[in-house]
Amino acid sequence: MNKKSTEILVGLFVVLGLLALLFLALKAANLGSFAGGGDTYTLQARFDNIGGLKSRAPVRSAGVNVGRVTSVTLDAQTYQGLVTMEINKGLNFPKDSSAKIQTAGLLGDQYVGLEPGGDEKNLAAGDVITQTQSAVVLENLIGQFLYNKAADGGEQKAQ
Questions:
Q1: Which runs of E-coded beta strand occur in the chain?
Q2: How far apart are CA 48 and CA 133, in angstroms?
Q3: What is the pLDDT of residue 112?
Q4: Of 105, 100, 96, nearest to 85 (Cα)?
Q5: In sequence order, which residues have a C-beta less than 8 Å from that of residue 54 and are 6 or more positions away?
Q6: 130-154 burial: b if 16+ Cβ within 10 Å, else e
Q7: What SS3 class is residue 105?
Q8: Residue 90 has pLDDT above 80, yes or no
Q9: Which pLDDT score is estimated for 152?
Q10: Cα distances (Å, whole numbers) of residue 127 to 84, 105, 123, 159
Q11: Phi-psi region of 30 (alpha: psi -120 to 50; beta: other; left: phi over 0)
C-alpha cells in the first residue's frame, strides 16, 4: 500500500468513528428517531407534580415503549403540569386508562407509565387522560421520613 491509500483508509476510519459517536449521542439524548406525527396520535394528561419529567421522555405500558412525551407545560387555569404525549397509532388504550409518572430505577430518568383500563371505548386523538398519579419526589420522601422520625423521638422523651 502506498502512502495515499493508507491516508484514505485512516480518513474513512475517522469518519466512521465520528458517525458512530453521533449515533450514540442521539440515542443517549432520546433523539434517535426524527420522524414525528405520521404514525402517532396525541393524548394529554394533567399532573399535580411532574417531578423531573422532560420532553422526549418515553411513554411505556407494561415496560414496553408505546410513545413519547412531546411537551410539558403549565396549565394557566388549573396550575397543573400538562403533559402531551404521542402514542403509536396501532395501540388503542381504553378511555378509563390511567397515567403515572414513574422513575426508571432508584435515581433514573422519569417516564410516563400507561395502565390500560377496562372500558370498551378507546381514547381518541386529543383526549385527556383523567386518572393520573403524580411523580414521587425522592427529596420529599426523605424529608417526610426525617420529620416523622424527629416527631417520634420527641414523643418518646416526653413520656
A1: 40-47, 58-61, 64-74, 81-88, 98-103, 110-115, 128-129, 131-133
A2: 8
A3: 92
A4: 100
A5: 69, 72, 109, 110
A6: eebbbbeeeeeeeeeeeeeeeeeee
A7: coil
A8: yes
A9: 79
A10: 10, 30, 6, 56
A11: left
Identify the sign of the CA torsion 86, 91, 92, 94.
Answer: negative
Grid cell of 159 as nine digits: 413520656
**What are the counts of helices (DSSP H) followed by strands (DSSP E) for the chain?**
2, 8
The predicted-structure confidence for 23-67, as pLDDT tens digits, reads as follows: 888 877 666 555 555 688 999 999 998 888 889 899 999 989 999
pTM of the model: 0.66
Tell me the three cell numbers of residue 4: 495515499
Which pLDDT belongs to residue 154? 61
**Which single residue is written with the C-alpha cell 416523622?**
148
Share of the chain above pLDDT 90, in %: 37
Residue 78's CB is within 10 A of a number of other CB atoms, namely: 10
Q: How far apart are the first and last CA of the chain?
A: 90
Beta-bridge partners for 59: 67, 112
Examine the pLDDT at 148 and tell me if it is beyond 90.
Answer: no
DSSP symbols for 45-89: EEES--TT--TT-EEEETTEEEEEEEEEEE-TTT--EEEEEEEET
